[in-house]
Design goal:
Largest sheet: 8 strands, parallel
Helix content: 40-55%
Radius of gyration: 23 Å
Number of strands: 10
Order of helices and strands: EHHEHHEHEEHEEHEHHEHEHHHHH
Distance between the termini: 14 Å
Strand order of the largest sheet: 8-6-4-3-2-1-10-9
Low-confidence stretches: none
CATH topology of the largest domain: TIM Barrel
Strand content: 5-15%
Number of domains: 2
Oligomer: single chain
Mean pLDDT: 97
CATH superfamily of the largest domain: Divalent-metal-dependent TIM barrel enzymes
C-alpha cells in the first residue's frame, strides 16, 4: 500500500496551462490572481510533482502575437520544459474565446469563419507536434446554437464532419504521429452544443473518413452537467476502443461547469471511476481539467493541484483494498455465482443453443426471490471510503 501518495512520472498526471494558470475570473467577478506566464506555470507544476502540461494554442502564444514573438515564446517554453522534465502529451486549439467564433468555428454559418478555424487549427497542430503532443483534443465550445431558427443541425454536423475529415487528412499528409480526441459537453457557453455526450460522439466518429484516428476525451464535469454517470460513459468509450484521453475534475449534477478539484464533490463516483481506469489498465494521461477556488492564492493553487493528484492516488489505493477485502469479494462471488449450466450460450447464436434454450424450464418465482445483497455491498464501499475498513 502507498504511504505518502506522492505523484510520480509513471502516474502520468497532467494539468493544462489554463487550469493552474486560471486567474479566478468568472462571469460575475474580476480576476483574483495575477496571470502567470507559461514558463512560471511549468515550474509550478514541476514543484508539485506533475508529469505533463497541456495547452491551447493561445494559452502559450497570444492570438495577436507576431511570428517573431511566437518563436521567442515557444523557445522560452521549451527551455522551461527541458529544465523541469515536464512533457507536453496533449494540445488543443482555442476556437471559442475570440469574438470571431461567436457563432461557432467549424460549424459557423459563415464560410470565412470556417476557413479561418481550419487554418488556426492546422497551425496549432503544428505547434502541438513541435512540442511533442501525441493527442489532439477538440472541444467545440461554440459549436451549437441558442435558436434552432438560426442554424440547421444537419448543416452543423456536416460542417463538423468536413472539418475533421480535412484535419485528419492534414495530419496524415504531414506524417504526424497524432490522434484526435473529441470532447463532448451538453451546454455552456452555448445554450445547446452539438454532440453533447459521449454516446453522441461515439456515433458521430463512425461517420468520419478516418474513424480509426479519432476517439474521445470525456470529462467528469460535462457528463455530470447532464446528470449522467461518468464512469458508465468512460466504460462505453473504453469498450469501443476510443478512450484516447480523459479530463478529471468534479461537478455536482445539473450545475454549470464547476471544474472542482478531483474528488472534492462526488467522492463515490470518483472512486468507481478510478477503480475502472485502474482495473482495465488505462495507460493514458490522467489530465486534471479543473480550477482552484476563486478565493485561492497561488500557494492554495499548489495545494489544489497536489490535492487532485493525491486524491487519485488515495482512491487508487482504496480500489486495491476493494479487490483484497474478503467480505466484499465473497459478496461479489455470491452475486455473480455461475454453475456453468448456461455456458452453452457463451458462443452466441447457433441452432443447438436455440434448441436447448427453448427446451429449458425456468422458475420465474424463484428468479424474483433471489437474494441480492446490494445494500450490504454498497455500505461496505462507503465504509471503505470512510476509512472504517
Amino acid at each position: 500500500m502507498m504511504s505518502n501518495y506522492e505523484p510520480k512520472p509513471e502516474h502520468k498526471f497532467t494539468f493544462g496551462l489554463w487550469t493552474v494558470g486560471n486567474i479566478g475570473r468568472d462571469p460575475f467577478g474580476n480576476p483574483t490572481r495575477r496571470a502567470l506566464s507559461p514558463v512560471e506555470i511549468v515550474h509550478l507544476l514541476a514543484e508539485v510533482g506533475a508529469w505533463g502540461v497541456n495547452l491551447h494554442d493561445n494559452d502559450l502564444v497570444p492570438i495577436e502575437a507576431t511570428p517573431a514573438e511566437r518563436d521567442r515564446i515557444v523557445r522560452d517554453f521549451k527551455k522551461a520544459l527541458d529544465e523541469t522534465g515536464i512533457v507536453v502529451p496533449m494540445a488543443t486549439t482555442n476556437l471559442f474565446t475570440d469574438p470571431a467564433f461567436k457563432d461557432g468555428a467549424f460549424t459557423s454559418n459563415d464560410p470565412v469563419v470556417r476557413a479561418y478555424a481550419l487554418q488556426k487549427t492546422m497551425q496549432a497542430i503544428d505547434l502541438g507536434v513541435e512540442l511533442g503532443a501525441k493527442v489532439y483534443v477538440f472541444w467545440g465550445g461554440r459549436e451549437g446554437a441558442e435558436s434552432d431558427a438560426a442554424k440547421n443541425p444537419l448543416d452543423g454536423l456536416k460542417r463538423m464532419r468536413d472539418a475533421l475529415n480535412f484535419l485528419t487528412e492534414y495530419v496524415i499528409d504531414q506524417g504526424y504521429d497524432l490522434k484526435f480526441a473529441l470532447e463532448p459537453k451538453p451546454n455552456e457557453p452555448r445554450s445547446d452544443i452539438y454532440l453533447p455526450t459521449v454516446g453522441h460522439m461515439l456515433a458521430f466518429i463512425e461517420t468520419l473518413d478516418h474513424a480509426e484516428m479519432v476517439g474521445l476525451n470525456p470529462e467528469v464535469a460535462h457528463e455530470h452537467m447532464a446528470g449522467l454517470n461518468f464512469m458508465h460513459a468512460v466504460a462505453q468509450a473504453w469498450d469501443a476502443g476510443k478512450l484516447f484521453h480523459i479530463d478529471l475534475n468534479d461537478q455536482l449534477f445539473g450545475r454549470y461547469d464547476q471544474d472542482f478539484r478531483f474528488g472534492s464533490a462526488m467522492l463515490k463516483q470518483a472512486f468507481f471511476l478510478v477503480k475502472f481506469l485502474e482495473d482495465v489498465g488505462y495507460d493514458g494521461s490522467r489530465h486534471f481539467d479543473a480550477h482552484a477556488y476563486r478565493s485561492a492564492d497561488y500557494e492554495d493553487v499548489k495545494a489544489f493541484a497536489l490535492g487532485c493528484m493525491r486524491t487519485y492516488l488515495i482512491l487508487k489505493e482504496k480500489a486495491q483494498r476493494f479487490s483484497e477485502d474478503a467480505e466484499i469479494q465473497e459478496l461479489l462471488a455470491e452475486i455473480n455465482a455461475d454453475d456453468g449450466t448456461y455456458a452453452y450460450l457463451a458462443n452466441g447464436y447457433n441452432a443447438e443453443a436455440v434448441t436447448r434454450l427453448k427446451a429449458e424450464t425456468f422458475d420465474r418465482e424463484a428468479l424474483g426471490q433471489r437474494t441480492l445483497p446490494y445494500e450490504r455491498l454498497d455500505q461496505l464501499v462507503i465504509e471503505l471510503l470512510l476509512g472504517a475498513r
